[in-house]
Structure formats: C-alpha cells, structure tokens
Amino acid sequence: MNIEFNNLSLKLSNSQILDNVSGTIQKGKITVILGENGAGKSSLLSLLTGIRDNDSGQIKIDGRDIKDLKPKERAKTIGYLSQRSEIHWDISAQYLVGLGRFAHGDDNIEIIHDAMKKCDCYNLKDRIANQLSGGEQSRVMLARVLAGEPQWIFADEPLANLDPAHQLDAINIFKKAAKKGTGVVLVLHDLNISAQIADEIIILKNGRIIAGGDAKEVLSKENIAKAYNVEVFETIGQGGEKIFVPIKRL
After folding, report:
1. How far apart are CA 73 and CA 50, in angstroms?
2. Please, which pLDDT band fits residue 89 given cuts at 50, 70 and 90?
C-alpha cells in the first residue's frame, strides 16, 4: 500500500510554496525528502500528514483520500514528529509518551515503556518533560510517535538535536520500522546519512520536485548541484554507500 499525491499546490502569504507536485511513497521503505532551505520540504510533509490543507490536488493513503479519514483514524494511521517539538506542559515524560496512545483509547504501559526504551529515554520517565534538554525532548517526542504504533511515520529533521549516538539509535529505529512494513518519510539535510538509510529520495527545489525515485540513482552529483547549487566530491564508504563532500558553490 502506498501514499499517492497528485498535483499538490500550496500558497502562503502570496508565495507559491509548492507548485503542482506529484509522486508515490511506498510502505515498508524509508523515503527521504531533500532540498535547500525554503524548498518546501516541511510544507510537503504537513500536507501529506493532513496537518495543513492543500490548495489543489489530492492525497490518497492506502487508496483512501486523506480527507475521508476521521481524526482518530488518521491519528492511528499517521505518526508525525515535527521539526519544532516544543513541550509546554508540566507533565512527566512518561505521561507525554502515553499521549501517543490517545487514538487507541488506552494507556498500555508496556507499549509506552517499550517505546521509551527504544528511544533511550526510559530513565527520564519521571522527569518533567519541559525541563529536559533539547535532545532529551526530541527522544521523548519520538517515543510518543512510536507508542502510537502508526502505519506511517513522518519526521521533520528528526536527527537535528541528537548527539551522534542517539542519531544512530534513531536511524536504527526508522530502519526497523520500515523492515516491519511501516512507511517512513523523513526530511533530512545530511546527504551522507540520506545515502546510508534512504530507499527512495524526493528532491525539492523552489516548491517543485526536480528528482525522485531510487536513492542510489537520485542522489548524484548532478542532482545535488541542481538542488543546492554546490559542487561535491563523491566517493564510496566502507559499506559501499556514497559519501559527498561539498567543495564549492556554483
């Protein structure tokens, strides 16, 4: 089952943020959305999750129009980790993670604790969530998404506040989720991490998709130059993955 989006457009404050974009995202794979600042990555994610309404076009999740999904059904289907996961409430980290179970109508403590252990934040369960560091809050919010057991995980720059060890943990979480059949859609900036984990890549520029498809084919020096206006040196890592080093602006 897939997500299909056709002819999506979005205008904000008289600026064309997304312009007639179409594509397919496959379940059981990791799809990474790339592009320079302001390319429309976060906006596309907000449309695909139903957080924001598109001006035109259609989105189908597993064959159903996203607008036909009731709020609770959408919450069970889609888990969303925003770029700015600010926590404003004086509640415990465990209670916050437990909110991920809201759509299921329960507070299954085993699932909640398992999610926290996967994100290495079980030791924080009794701490006040909004008093945690930025990286700790990011791990708690990811655990909240996992606790909801969604069929699709969408995450906007999920590695940004994490140290290298916890970045690896998050990467492994996304890989395992995809292996179990969950659709994983990530907005990333790091080309090398994208090369390591992506099955599919979508590259945006000025609100349009300039390349999309198999990661090994899409992530090329030519497409990187088009997307970011930079020249990169390309080499191969020990695991056979591509490694890119920016050299100069074009």
Report:
1. 12
2. confident
Instruction: Report the distance separating Cα 129 and Cα 137, nearest Å.
Output: 7
Return the percentage of the chain with pLDDT > 70, whole number: 100
62, 39 in Cβ contact below 8 A? no
Reply yes or no on whether the pLDDT at 86 is more than 80. Answer: no
What is d(CA 100, CA 102) in angstroms, rounded to the nearest whole number? 6
Where is 169: in which H helix or E strand? helix 164-179
Strand order in the sheet with 200-205: 78-81, 152-156, 183-187, 30-34, 200-205, 208-214
How many residues can be counted in the chain? 250
Distances (CA, A) of 83 to 134, 141, 230, 246: 12, 11, 25, 25
- pTM assigned to the model: 0.96
Question: Is the separation of the CB atoms in 208 and 187 below 8 Å?
Answer: no
Contact 185, 194 (CB under 8 A): no
7: left (phi over 0), alpha (psi -120 to 50) or beta: left
- Terminal-to-terminal C-alpha distance of the chain: 40
The residue written with tokens 């299909």 in the block is: 4
